[in-house]
Structure formats: structure tokens, C-alpha cells
Amino acid sequence: MKALILNSGMGSRMGVLTSEHPKCMTEISPRETILSRQLNQLSEAGVKQVVITTGLFNHVLEAYCESLDLPLEYTFVHNPDYRVTNYIYSIYLARAALDDDILLMHGDLVFENEVLDRVLGSDSSCMTVSTTLPLPEKDFKAVIRGGKVMKVGVGFFENAAAAQALYHLKRDDWRRWLKEIEAFVDAGKVTVYAEEALNALDGEANIAALDVRDLLCAEIDDAQDLAVVTRRLKEVENRTVYMCFSTDLIHGGHIEIIRKARRLGKLIVGVLSDEAVASYKRFPLVPCAERMKLFENITGVTRVVEQKTLSYRENIETYRPDIVVHGDDWCAGFQKPVRDEVVALLKDYGGKLVEFPYSANEEYQEIQKRQRADLAMPDLRRGRLRRLLEMKGLVTVMEAHDGLTGLIVENTVVHENGGARQFDAMWLSSLCDSTAKGKPDIELVDMTSRFRTIDDIMEVTTKPIIFDGDTGGLTEHFVYTVRSLERMGVSMVIIEDKTGLKKNSLFGTEVEQTQASIEEFSQKIRAGKKAQRTKDFMICARIESLILEKGMEDALARAKAFTAAGADAIMIHSRKKDPAEICEFIGRFRKDDPATPIVLVPTSFNSVKEEEWKARGANIIIYANQLMRAAVPAIRSAAVSILENHRAEECDATLMPFKDIIRLIPEK
Ligand code: SPV
Ligand code: MG
Description:
Strand content: 15-25%
Distance between the termini: 42 Å
Bound molecules: sulfopyruvate, magnesium ion
Structural class: alpha/beta
Helix content: 40-55%
Radius of gyration: 36 Å
Largest sheet: 9 strands, mixed
């Protein structure tokens, strides 16, 4: 692609403005001339070769182009007969340099970037027209038939639209026109517009009419035009463009979309808050404040602001951008409601949505995959629970007891109102880990085996893990467990204040269970905290007083003592359906201690929604056994059906299709 800029005209209607230099060097803002603007635009759009025809002041023009120091390769073609010929003759003189796709423009044309992007992006040859502007009396009009430009000239008023001499000409179409130009010149027709030669082709040059409507694309013929264009240019340059990013790694694809967006106006970048990113894709590796700094340092970004939610409402209402830019991938799928809201908000004040085609670049996807793999590394995984607590206030945790359930907790997402919900972390339940191995929940499955389960889950997931440490065993053993868990990248261990043979809490007082003394258990917490090596790891003290019917006062006294011993969180358990005693505990504990996280396992008291727990002051909600309890009846009924029917056909409808199960686990 070569650009051809026609600058051999005299510009005599500009008066004194063109007494010392050609018209294209007329200033249109304190920083630019018509020509410098065009050349900058071409360079930014990736055009490298520019052919410029010159006339009067040709040396001034050549020196000026070089002084702009742009990465452009110029070919200057001087038309010595500029006083007595029209640009048809200049093109003729330049013809040897024009063997390519051509971007043809008059040297007095000022257009906004979007116009150039659309012209360059056109798949076929095209010419800019405007169907919204009134037909100009003395300037070019194009006769359009079936979207095609048939004739261009000043005298056409039927089926015509205002037209500007800005063309993208594919090589073959250009050749046809150029051949006709040669014929005209050879016949001595050198004072007519080059478009006369085009008109002789009667549509054979295949030039589509590209309707730029109200976008700025105007020529400057006289001082009045100059005033109008200068004012419009100011408006264009003061336009604000808004774009939101959730990424924590900036790659070439982002830079490219930023480059395109800033060509539309002053670019405000919204950076999605950590909480919003975590809810919709994954935990951000780089916190919001840092991500904002990254964007602040990208050329062309005027301002960086936080976008707190997936919804653009707050920022659109605050900044009222003229344009919002997004990839067109949100036109369908879960982001569609967000898009719909943006469209409605923009419509309110006449803002515009610009959507660039989304291309899933494999290289960038690979980077993202690698980044995701980083999240699984022990050091990065371990600290994330604390950060999630700080960020969200309430963290939801789902039980996983093997690689497959780990994957389900990792990947299950529900979309609602343009937002997304997923579990924040995983619970390695002693009950489910034991049950999966066909063993009772009595600390019979040894630590080696339980670590093996952690390893299986960790291998295929990235979310933080809370480990059910039962009683923690002997203090002398617990300190080793803490170190091992920490090293593996587990975020928290929960130990319960029981001693002797532990049974599952949900048996309550139906079975013999002994609570450890406050002192004995506090000592275990202290030893565990002393053993840990990182600041991230958390030890949570689980209080069994309500389960063992020792009363609320005992539970509260223990909570206070265990926190004083160094527990990073308190879990209060109950096996009652009614959440009243849990609510009372939270209310009373929070009076003295607003900060220590409270953990709940609402298996029995399951009627309260997460939002209410959060409002009451709870911080971690563990769904301790639901995945396993969902699986057992399903597997058993398949076994029963096969036994009853002496074949598998009847149960097949209740099963996952075979083709799905073999693809359930993607290959790395
Ligand atoms: C577990 O899931 O193993 C627990 C929670 O410890 S509960 O079963 O409610 O005791
Ligand atoms: Mg347990």
C-alpha cells in the first residue's frame, strides 16, 4: 500500500495563508498543519511509503516533510506545469511510482482517524462519501448506484452524495483508472479532474461508496473552511473514549487495541477491581493498584480509573465518555447484559459504542495459560486466601475430595445479570476424604494419605485450599503437619478442640466425644503458630462447645482464649437446623472482636443466604460435603438399575454421555 497525496495545486483561494508555502502546510491547530496531520495519521496507521506530487514551493514542502522526522519513505514528484495543468497531470507524472494498492487523497483534506481506519480497512476499493451532509454546491459529489460510485464531479445532483477525494484503490481497480488517466493526458486533456477519467470507466473501477456520515472528513479551500475545520478538529480531539481492562498482564494485543482506541479521542482506561476480576475469571496475580500503574505508563492513555464492578454504569455516569470501546466478543454470551446496559446508558446522551473484532490470538492465549499455571504454585496459592478475605469480606468454599471434584470446584461458574459467581476456595473435608476411601471419619485415614489427596487436587486446580485438620493430633505431631501443609501451598488448617478418639461433629452427643481443655488446645495453637514459616498460612480454631452442648458462654470464652493464643480465625459449629445459636455467637463475638475471621459450616443450618451471613459478620462459608452427598445417590441408583435390569440400557439416560466423559478432562 502506498499513499498518494496531491499537492501541486496553487491554493490561491487561501489568500495570504499560502503566500510562502503550499496550502497543505496551513496550520490547523497550534501543533499541526494539514500535511503533518495526514502524515502522522498515515504513519500511525502503518503506511510506510508516501508519494507526494508538488508544484509551487516544492522545495519548501520537501524540506518540511523531512523535518517531521516520521518513519515514512517519500517519493516527491514535481509537476513543473502546475500553473496550467490539473492534478490529472501530476498523477500521470507520478505513475511509475504507483504500482501498488493506493490510498489517494487531496493535500487539503482533513479527516479524523476513524475515517482513515475505515478507508484502509475496506475490503474493496472505496471512496468516502457522506449521506448526512447536504449536497455541496461547488464541491465533489458522487453518483451512487447499488453502493457503487459511478461518477464523481461537481455537476452531479441526481442520486448523489457529498464526496471527498479520499480513496482506497485496490491495485487492479487503480490500474484501470490510471490507464484511463494516461489516455486522457495523451489526448491532451490535462486541465480536467482525474475523476473525469474515472467517469469514463462508468463504474468499472469498482469503487464502493464508504459512507462516513458525520465523521470529520473535509477539504480546506478558503479561510472560512479553515475556521470550520479547526473548530471541528478541536471537538474531535476533545472526545473522550472509555475502555475497561481486567488483565494483569499487558501483551501486544492490548497495546494494539489501546492504539486503536486512542485514535478515537482522549483515552480513559478503567481497570477492573480485584473483586470483580476474581468473580468473573480468576484471582488477579497483580493487584488493582499495580495494574492501574501499568496502564498509566502506556502511551496514549490519558487517565486511569478503577471500575469497581463488571457493570460500566458508575464510570459511564461519572465520565460520560463520547465513545466506549470493547471487543465484539461481548455481543453474545454472559457479558451481553453488561453490553446491553452500556448501549442503553450511551443512548441516553448520544454516546457511541465502537466494537473492534475480537481475535483469539494463540500466542496470547498461551501466555494466559502459563499465567494461570503460576496461580497453582505453592507460594502464590497459599497467600491468596488472606487476600480474598481482605478483598471480599466473605469467601465461599466448596468441598473437594479428589482431582475430579477439585476440577468441578475450580471451573464451575454461574452467570447472572452480566456478572459471574464461582467458589473462592476448596475444603478438604476429613469426612469426605475418609468416605471416599470407604473409611469412617475418625482420624483413621493417616496424614500421608490425606496429603496425597491434597496433591491430586492441587495438580489440577489453582484455588486456595482449607484443610480439615481434625483435632490436629498430638501437639508434637501438629507442628510437623503445619510445616508440611504450608510447604504444599495450603492456606489454612482448621483444628477442632476435641481430644481422644474424634468422631464427626454431626453425631453431636449421640457418641462419646471429649472436648480439649482451653489450656491444652491453646497450647496446640501456640505451637502451630510458632512452627509456621510464612506470614500467609492461617490456623483456625474450631469450637465444639455448641455441638457438645457446653453452652454459649463456654463457646465465647474459648473463642477469646484461642484468638489470644494466636488463632487466625475462629470456626463455630452447630448441628441445629435453626441458625439462632450461630447468629447469637457471631453477634456476641463481634462485639469484642471486629476483625478475627469467623468460619461457618452451614450443613444443618442451611437456610441462611451468604449475603446475610456476611451482613452478620461471618467471613468464610464452607459447603463441607454437598458434592459427595450429591454423588452417592446417583452412583448407587446406577448400580441398582443395572442389577435390576440385567443390562445398562435403562440407566443410560441418567448418565453423562460417554463422548462427554472422555473429553471431560482436557489434555494439558
Ligand atoms: C468435615 O467436613 O469433615 C467437617 C465438617 O469436619 S463436619 O462434617 O460438619 O464436622
Ligand atoms: Mg472433619
